[in-house]
Design goal:
The chain has 7 helices and 15 strands. By secondary structure, it is of the alpha+beta class.
């Protein structure tokens, strides 16, 4: 079944909702995690996407970051991140996105991400390639990491400073072996990987709504997208594991093993 036209339509409308509210809304920090921020726009975008999926695919399951899990006992599950990079959005930074992914059983089969400020809409379906504004995209073929930008996003955990120390060591080694490191605080960095701008993208504090839609786009663009340690991302029992952490490492085939070698020095 063709899902790209549906994803494009939904994300286009979600982009308009976010754009209309950009710079006008402040966020509140979620209880227990200073890295998690919520705005009224998260709720508005999530509500729109959930209702649209219910109308089009009433039998499908849904996982929305804010609304939670809707279990219809289907083999299909839509995964929604209404505003990815909410901290950025709440502070009027344009580095934010809306992500929509689809699992069939436990495998990503379709996805999309819209970057409202940049007017960029990325889509992909299994076996059909990845697209930016309906034009095909592909990861870079560059083999020399010293010529590439690498994304590595780090969240701070005041209660676990050792975690940040390890992250800093990994980051140091990557910085010394690439042209430079970038960090947007959003999954949009993975779209820069998919279109050939970056050589890799990493984040260890991410959830299922961050990665499902992102993974299919990166892979269909020719990239590699795995768990942070290089293992296959496991989406089994995803309805029961919606709040678990899904750390990831993504990169071009040419650079992936080099980045994994650095990571495994500290795991």
């Amino acid at each position: 079944m063709d899902y790209s036209s549906f994803i494009t339509s939904v994300l286009s409308e979600a982009s308009q909702i976010a754009t209309d509210n950009f710079g006008k809304i402040q966020g509140t920090t979620k209880s227990g995690d200073n890295n998690q921020v919520l705005t009224e726009t998260d709720l508005a975008v999530g509500k729109y996407i959930v209702n649209t999926i219910k109308e089009k695919y009433p039998s499908h399951n849904i996982i929305d970051e804010e609304a939670g899990v809707i279990d219809n006992h289907s083999e299909y599950t839509w995964i929604i991140d209404p505003i990815d990079g909410t901290s950025n959005f709440a502070n009027a930074s344009p580095l934010y996105a809306t992500i929509l992914g689809l699992l069939y059983q436990d495998h990503p089969v379709a996805g999309g991400m819209v970057l409202p400020y940049f007017k960029e809409l990325y889509t992909a379906e299994k076996g059909k390639g990845a697209f930016l504004n309906k034009k095909a995209i592909h990861v870079s073929n560059e083999q020399n990491m010293l010529k590439m930008l690498i994304s590595y996003n780090v969240d701070g955990f005041q209660s676990d400073p050792e975690r940040t120390e390890i992250e800093s060591q990994i980051l140091k080694d990557i910085i010394l072996q690439c042209r430079n490191v970038r960090s947007s605080g959003s999954m949009l960095d993975c779209m820069f990987l998919a279109r050939g701008t970056y050589g890799g993208a990493h984040h260890r504090n991410t959830n299922i709504w961050d990665v499902v839609g992102t993974q299919i786009i990166v892979e269909e663009a020719g990239g590699i997208f795995t768990n942070f340690d290089g293992s296959t991302l496991d989406y089994t029992d995803h309805l029961k594991r919606a709040k678990e952490n899904y750390p990831f490492c993504s990169a071009t085939p040419s650079l992936y093993n080099q980045l994994q070698k650095i990571i495994h020095k500290y795991l």
